[in-house]
From TrEMBL:
Record keywords: Membrane, Phosphate transport, Transmembrane, Transmembrane helix, Transport
A Pfam cross-reference name: PHO4
Annotated InterPro entries: Phos_transporter (IPR001204)
GO MF term (any one): phosphate transmembrane transporter activity
GO cellular component terms attached to this protein's record: membrane
Subcellular location: Membrane
Bilayer topology annotation: Multi-pass membrane protein
Organism this protein belongs to: Ahrensia marina
PANTHER family: PHOSPHATE TRANSPORTER (PTHR11101)
Protein's UniProt name: Phosphate transporter
Membrane-crossing residue ranges in chain numbering: 27-50, 62-83, 95-116, 144-164, 171-189, 195-216, 236-254, 260-283, 304-322, 349-370, 390-409, 415-431, 469-495
Family: Belongs to the inorganic phosphate transporter (PiT) (TC 2.A.20) family.
Amino acid sequence: MTAPDKNPGNRYVNDLRRIEYGQSQFFNLRSIVVPLGLSVIFLAVVGLLVGRSYSSFGNETLIVVIAAIVGGYMALNIGANDVANNMGPAVGGKVLTVLGAVFIAAICETAGALLAGGDVVSTVSKGIISPESDQISVQDFRSLMLAALFAAGLWINLATWLSAPVSTTHSIVGGVLGAGVAASGFGLVDWNTMGLIAASWVISPVFGAAVAAALLYLIKIKILNVEDRIPAAKKWVPILIAVMASAFTAYMATKGLKKIWSPSSVEIVIASLLAFGVAYFLARPHIERKIVGRQNTKKDMYGLFDVPLIIGVALLSFAHGANDVANAVGPLAAIVSTLSSGNEIASQVAIPIWVMVVGAFGIAIGLVLFGPKLISVVGEKITRLNSPRAYCVALSSAVTVLIASNLGLPVSSTHIAIGAVFGVGFLREYVENPNKRKLRPGHKLNATADDAFDAVAAHRKRRLVRRNFALSIAAAWVITVPASAFLSAFIYWLLQLV
């Protein structure tokens, strides 16, 4: 006979804990399995539809189906990783929820890809290789493009899993480089172009950080840190909104609307000036209404930047969809073009509408299923953001691209956005120093060991940017091209064995 349980309540508590643990494990598993399952369904649908459409190509149908699936996979990863750079600051600034950001970005990314995505692009050689040369056959070219696309997708997938925002352009460049070298040696590579790409690792984040820090410093000295903030806001916020409208008009004309509108430099300047004037005169009464009833505090001034910020990140997402869809579907379009052009390699290829649809919906689905993770990292993990700081990050992305384009400097939108977040954080450290230790006159050294420990603790508290994220993200940027290149070369070698 077993002895009766002296404390049956413990048994019930343990049972409840086991049930609670089992439920938590189930929900964690579901959060992984469901997105993966939906992704597999998306890729399967792509493969089936493409296979049915290209069934008349006989043995070559398989390469198109595989390329379409890999292109869809690349698009999913772009949505999971790259879109976070635009929407992360708005989420971190508490202007948008993660769900709201995902919803806006999905619509704008899809619209940008379908409405303004380039219908004619290079074969995504990006100037790295010369695919039209006699050094490479059509079959090897197809394998090269497929290996580059798959390697880039794998690398971005790994970076997303490691919570590291990376450049999709650099990923595909590394893929083309690695497969190109594997296909025809180092002579196929344009190393001058590679040098410019390497330079962008430094130029992009530094430019982005400098512009964002300068904008935030202006907002601080003109609005947030003055004694009478309300009249200062009435004067300066409409000007800042007009500057944003002008910058984004030029940005959309040069980056986001290339397929719809190709203006001259003079037309861009005129349009930007008109946008400045219209935005200023619309913003003045808007700010006058919004500022009624607000207190003369910094926190009450933050809300004045909410609407411009939402518009700004939406435009960034539209332009991103218009530009980066080529990274997802360019190699796919290049492979398809070799079939429709009689097994010839062209330096310029037209992107069929179905290829654009795969890229557009792949980016949107990847964003919805996997994007919230990187959005939280960019918006909340690096440094603390609010509405004005996030506004500076968004405006910095547009301004930096415009400056760099006029100077002929290579930049990455991913690196610019992340650099801008770090620039905002480091400016706060330098200007605010909320826990700054004030030494008494004549005291250059700490009197006791306790004072020394307190000084170290105070110094650490002043760090408003998480250095571990800076190091890990910088490492991912540097590794991106060689990692995707090695992956691509290995995949190309495997394809040659098949």
